Amino acid sequence: MAISDDGTVSVELELSGFPVQRLDGPNFQPKDNPQLNYVFGLLQALAQSLTCVAGKLTVTSVTGVAVPDTFQLCAGVAALRFGA
Fold this sequence. Notes:
By secondary structure, the chain is mostly beta strands. The chain has one helix at 44-47; strands spanning 8-15, 21-23, 37-41, 53-61, 66-73, 79-83. The longest helix is centred in the middle third of the chain and has 4 residues, at 44-47.
């Protein structure tokens, strides 16, 4: 999924009860797709959890605009990936 049209400076992931994770640039590019991705590894405790946690993703653009979005993250997810 596209996360910014005017260039991304950083992507920050907040999950309730866990430390904030921040990426200042894409860290993954699939071999079969040139789109760069921001991939967050999730803590083992969360991946094995039987409950869902509230999450917030904030994308900051090169123009300084910060766009937050909230979601629920449930058990069984090992990584979150967002396209640039």
